[in-house]
Automatic annotation (TrEMBL):
This is NB-ARC domain-containing protein. It comes from Streptomyces humicola. InterPro entries: Apaf_helical (IPR042197), P-loop_NTPase (IPR027417). It comes from the Bacteria.
């Protein structure tokens, strides 16, 4: 298991720090707590657990608050806990140096919240869960990072089977798969829909799938009376920690018609330089609100896309959305024209009357590079044709089709 290798269960690890990172609702805490219970025998002096509330409706714990709680767990009476933060850190590490303990720091916001709480001795291990990648701990402390991703379709159905029972899943295998697909492989969402069905044993899975499809999915993925359990609320807690440029980028990416986006397309969409776009995209990937699955290409699961769509409609006015979409479609069209011109120069195109233009579309140097761009953007270009037509922009739709005529 990855945590066994990263932390070490039977002997001190070379780098006794493991980071379990991932997007909201992916199961970081569940994994870390489950592993800690299983590894309890390797830590004869016990385990310490603290929820740092880095992404929570409640205020995050300060360093002094967290250290006070940890010191009390180590046997220091509350009245004897030092007030000075540096004295707290010294006492905390002195007490740990005499023991072999696992410290589980759950829900950390950033490295500044975590670093003073690290044991500082090789015989003590620390496991940290965070929605942030905590890169600085990897660089300076040599921490091992384990990035959790969404479940694949078979794993998603297996989780539903665990909660609902094999007979119910086996009776409706196609509906169970459709339900798993709606949840985008997110364990939190899967557990919520499974709990909803458990409360209604007479309801079929197919009926529940239909109800979810006909409703606002994010509104339905919640447990009433527990606001932090809602999928949208969990995403909101990650979103609101970002700087403004990353917030805007996150919202505008909802306007991309296809399943992925390149750095250059994101830059055009936000009307910023590629370098500025890279900074925003990197911040989103560090917060696990976006995945860089290939160099300078990004994607996110469907529930995050729904959340971004909700935000862009709430915050960005119609004029700004139209302008951003116009820039993106102009970039698609001009770059597609340049690409097909390199590959099939003998195929002529219609004059681009009434189409917006950009001062600097992506420069393609050779036919091989042009073919690679067309292949990478194929799904987005086809989706752009349909989106433009559906949005009442037939001029852009047929010009995009004309641009791709030679390629197809």
């Amino acid at each position: 298991m990855a945590l066994d290798a990263a932390v070490g269960c039977t002997k001190p690890a070379e780098a006794p720090i493991a980071i379990v990172s991932g997007t909201a609702g992916v199961g970081k805490t569940s994994l870390a707590v489950h592993w800690a219970h299983r590894a309890a025998g390797a830590y004869p002096d016990g385990q310490l657990y603290i929820n740092l509330r880095g992404h929570s409706l409640d205020p995050a714990l300060s360093t002094t608050q967290a250290l006070a709680l940890l010191l009390q767990s180590l046997g220091v009476p509350s009245g004897s806990v030092p007030v000075d933060e540096q004295v707290q850190i010294g006492l905390y590490r002195s007490l740990l140096s005499q023991r072999r303990i696992l410290v589980l720091l759950d829900n950390a916001s950033d490295v500044n919240q975590v670093r003073p709480l690290l044991p500082g001795t090789p015989q003590n291990q620390a496991v940290i869960t965070s929605r942030d990648s905590l890169d600085s701990l990897v660089v300076r402390e040599g921490a091992h990072r384990i990035a959790l991703t969404e479940m694949d379709p078979s794993e998603s159905v297996h989780l539903l089977r665990t909660v609902l029972g094999a007979s119910r899943i086996d009776a409706e295998p196609d509906a169970a798969q459709a339900l798993a697909d709606l949840c985008a492989g997110l364990p939190l969402a899967l557990r919520i829909v499974a709990a909803q069905l458990s409360a209604h044993p007479d309801r079929t899975i197919a009926e529940h799938v239909c109800d979810l499809r006909d409703s606002d999915l994010l509104d339905e993925l919640q447990v009433h009376g527990d606001p932090e359990t809602a999928v949208a609320a969990a995403m909101e807690l990650s979103y609101r920690t970002l700087p403004e440029d990353a917030l805007r980028m996150f919202r505008l990416l909802a306007l991309v018609p296809g399943p992925t986006v390149s750095r250059d397309a994101a830059a055009v969409l936000a009307d910023v330089t590629p370098r500025a776009a890279s900074r925003s995209l990197t911040r989103l990937t560090r917060a696990h609100l976006l995945e860089e699955y290939r160099l300078h290409r990004y994607r996110r699961h469907d529930l995050l896309s729904l959340f971004a769509r909700r935000l862009v409609d709430e915050i960005e006015n119609d004029h700004d959305q139209t302008a951003a979409t116009g820039r993106l479609y102009a970039w698609y069209l001009q770059t597609a024209d340049a690409a097909t011109g390199l590959i099939t120069p003998s195929v002529s195109h219609h004059e681009r009357k009434g189409c917006p233009t950009l001062a600097s579309p992506t420069h393609l140097r050779a036919s091989a590079e042009a073919a690679a761009w067309l292949e990478q953007e194929r799904a987005n270009l086809i989706a752009a044709v349909h989106r433009a037509a559906d949005a009442g922009h037939p001029n852009m739709a047929w010009h995009l089709v004309d641009a791709l005529r030679g390629h197809f």
